Structures are given as C-alpha cells and as structure tokens.
Amino acid sequence: MDSEDFQLAEEYFAFAIELAKKVGPMIRDAFYSEKEILTKSCTTDLVTETDQNVEKTILEAIKNSYPKHDFIGEESVAGGLKCNLTDAPTWIVDPIDGTTNFVHRFPYVAVCIGFVWKKERLFGVVYNPILNEMFTAFKGKGANLNDKKLKVSKEQDLGKSMIMTECGSSRDPKHLDKIFKNMQSVISAPVHAIHSLGSAACNICMVAQGGAEAYYEFGIHCWDYCAAGIIVEEAGGVVIDTQGGELDLMRRRIIAANNMSVAKSLSNVIVEQMELPRD
Ligand code: IPD
User: Taking the domain 3-149, which CATH number applies?
Assistant: First the structure.
C-alpha cells in the first residue's frame, strides 16, 4: 500500500460512514415494526426482508461509485455469490449483524462495513442505529465511538477478565457440545463472567470500548468480524486465531482481546478448536 492508496482508502472510509448513516433509518424503522421472518441454513439461522434490502442498498451504492471494487456480503453469499478474497479493493458487509436480536427487538444490532485491499484490513464501520452508536476505525489512526476516542481495558489477567462469546445459530449437537466444553473451560479458568450481546460485531466493539476484556467465537463469518476487528485493534487491542496464531479472515474463528496477554491466556483455555468450512 503506498500513500496514494491510503489517500484513496480514506475517501472510501468517508463514503462507508455516510453509507452506514444512510441505511441506519431503514434498520431503525423496521426494528420497531412487525417483520416477516425467513430462515437460511436451519430454523435458527434467521433473515428478514430488511437484511436483504439494506445489503442491496449498500451494494448498489458501492457499485455505482466504485464499479471495479469487489463485494462480499452476507445476504449475497446466502443468495449464491462466491466468497472470493483477492488483492482487489474489497468491501465486506453484514447488513444487520445480530439478526436474531433484530427479530426480537433486543437492541444490539449493527450494520458492518469492512474494507480490505491487497489483503490488508484498512478500515471498519459498525453502526448500531438503535442505540445511535457509530464505531469507526482506520488503520493507524485510532478508533472512535461517535466523537469519543476508544481505548481497551488495561487488565492483563484472564482471571480478572469479562469474556464475551455466543452459541451461534447451529443446533448440531456435536457443534454445541464443543461450544459448551469451551464455555465450561473458560468460565472455570476462572474468569469474572461470560456475556453475550447476540452480535459478534457488538461484542467486539464492547471489547474495543473497554466494557469486556475479550471475545471469542467459532462459526462466524468474515462479515461478522472484519469491520469490528479493525476497530478493536485501533482501540489498542488485538485479534488472533483461536489457537493463538495470526488471524485468518476467512477461517471463521477469532479471539479479539484488549491485549496479547489476555488473548493468549484465553486461547490456552479453549479446549475444543473447531475447523469450519472456509468463507
Ligand atoms: C450472527 C451474530 C451472532 C453470532 C452468529 C452470527 P448475523 O450474525 O454475529 O452473534 O453468534 O454466529 O451468525 O447472522 O446476525 O449477521
């Protein structure tokens, strides 16, 4: 990435923030209305017309302004589009992270817009229009919640940490068994608590704002954690693979933490590493 690329990326960043603001009211209005609920891979993997409309609005805006850019979006992939991360400027979008929350009017939902170029994660925008929280970060320039700079917690000790994780949407007994074994191992590490907000992006942003020390999950997708991952890093935190190595954006697993000490200690108490089909 040269300085010209960075300058262009800053323009895309401003565009992404405006785009998130534009679709915010679509999510907010629908949040309080009756919804038709559809399912995808199983009866607990939910989608609504709003997920689809928000993604369509974002995709069209990007294609109009930047026709040569690539796009990976949750609902486009659900509709059969291939997930192919190349060196091209690529927008990675989740129209509503926390769709189950959205259906139940649990106010942790966010539109997520991440941007990757030459495989480098450059910026992230996570906007929760219900709580009016706009999280933004650009590589090397720090992270913000609305106008406030974000800073992760200073805690170094896993034993004094609050951990976020989720059960996810799969109800496959073998999958759930591993999730519960991990939860049992983590809670009895011991840690102060395990919490779930019901949205990977909101969980990661909670770590970015210092409200929890770490988040881990298996089975999520690049659109769930791309944007928020940049935000937690720019708030001073780290993102790594659940086994302790470098994060692989398409491997569908992550630890996001306030620092490497907590991240590595957490990885050591995750007893069941899970390998899922790649994005
Ligand atoms: C889901 C949320 C949830 C996580 C699931 C994701 P979606 O994303 O991030 O917290 O546990 O694995 O699929 O479907 O609401 O965009």
Answer: 3.30.540.10
